[in-house]
Amino acid sequence: MSVYQATASAPVNIACIKYWGKRDTKLILPTNSSLSVTLHQDHLRSTTTSRADPSFESDRLWLNGKEEDIKAGGRMATCIAEMKRLRKEEVEDKQPNEPKLSSYHVHIASFNNFPTAAGLASSASGFAALVSSLAQLYKLPVSPSTLSLIARQGSGSACRSLYGGFVAWEQGTRADGLDSLAVEVAPQSHWPEMHALICVVSDDKKGTSSTSGMQRTVETSTLLQHRIAHVVPKRMAAISAAIKARDFDAFAQITMADSNQFHAVALDTEPPIFYMNDVSRAIIALIVEYNRVSVEKGHGRKAAYTYDAGPNAVIYTLKENVKEIIELIVRYFPQAVGSFKDVFGLFGGVDV
Ligand code: 2P0
């Protein structure tokens, strides 16, 4: 008897141009395009195994060893149903001899190798790994961009984890979402010197979830409307050009500006949302000063901070500066060794 099973893993991605706001909450269509760097090392990944079998009586899911409900009509159920639809359309309807896996139930087991509560994007790597493992199981002859259309319906930021390197999520204009997908801006090999240092300031679970926070911002923030219409389109073009030219100074300027504006629209929400804390702000001050000195010497900016929906800092820098920045952080935050749970060098591998 044949066993139909596949395992795939997907990494976390960290946005430089932030996704914050949906124009369609069911299809997860964003109010603006976004761009991220996919983190490459083994530290931050989800690994998912899917199995299809005619004896299974329902679709079932285990996360980190614990069974979770698959809510009817929910995001997980939607992703599984969409993948079964693709299997039928792309494989079974075209090759009648292929087994009818789309009619079998699936059992899915997924593990994160990092703490889910650390405020790092576990839903991004999780839904990307889910979709990748089902794509392998179903032997789907489709591109990562096509798979990103389905991962997007699990969690918006997940669509960007279908590619490595530098990835844009194009917001699209269609009501059915078929043009709201991830595209590769440049592979990791284009700029292998790029590193990301993750400073875990706090691993508390965040107060306001991204999903509900961003909808409140859409409903109440006037600054968001300005950002959508006048800021993000220019930044998407400028940061793509900076990446293609490997212009770190421009990349850093845009990345920090966009982090600042994302936290500004959170503050402009009613009631206001605060994700950064005093330590986050002190790290910003340190990076600003570090860059000021570098610019004064004629070297341009050497580091870029960015913050998501939580207080943890991600610092982008080039490999040649990693050691200096870690030393700087440890010098100014002597408690760092204890309170920064981890500082990972990604793309390269630097631990403190
Ligand atoms: C991002 N974030 O671009 C932004 C920056 C957080 C701040 O994507 O509702 O967990 O599942 O689509 O993807 C977090 O949003 O929200 C996020 P849903 P998601 O990475």
From TrEMBL:
Of the GO CC terms on this record, one is: cytosol
What's its EC?
4.1.1.33
Q: Which residues form the Diphosphomevalonate decarboxylase-like N-terminal domain?
A: 10-182
Q: Name one GO molecular function term.
A: diphosphomevalonate decarboxylase activity
The record's listing under InterPro entries reads:
GHMP_kinase_C_sf, Mev_decarb, Mev_diP_decarb, MVD-like_N, Mvd1_C, Ribosomal_Su5_D2-typ_SF, Ribsml_uS5_D2-typ_fold_subgr
- What pathway is this protein said to act in by its record? Isoprenoid biosynthesis; isopentenyl diphosphate biosynthesis via mevalonate pathway; isopentenyl diphosphate from (R)-mevalonate: step 3/3
Keyword field contains S-adenosyl-L-methionine: no
Q: Which UniProt keywords apply?
A: ATP-binding, Lipid biosynthesis, Lipid metabolism, Lyase, Nucleotide-binding, Steroid biosynthesis, Steroid metabolism, Sterol biosynthesis, Sterol metabolism
Stored Pfam families: MDD_C, MVD-like_N
Q: Which reaction does it catalyse?
A: (R)-5-diphosphomevalonate + ATP = isopentenyl diphosphate + ADP + phosphate + CO2
What sequence ranges are listed for the domain Mvd1 C-terminal?
A: 196-352
GO biological processes:
isopentenyl diphosphate biosynthetic process, mevalonate pathway; sterol biosynthetic process
Is Lyase a UniProt keyword of this protein? yes
Q: Which domain of life is it from?
A: Eukaryota
- What family, per the record? Belongs to the diphosphomevalonate decarboxylase family.
UniProt xrefs under PANTHER family:
DIPHOSPHOMEVALONATE DECARBOXYLASE (PTHR10977)
Q: What is this protein called?
A: Diphosphomevalonate decarboxylase
Name its species.
Sphagnurus paluster
Q: What is the lineage of its organism?
A: Eukaryota, Fungi, Dikarya, Basidiomycota, Agaricomycotina
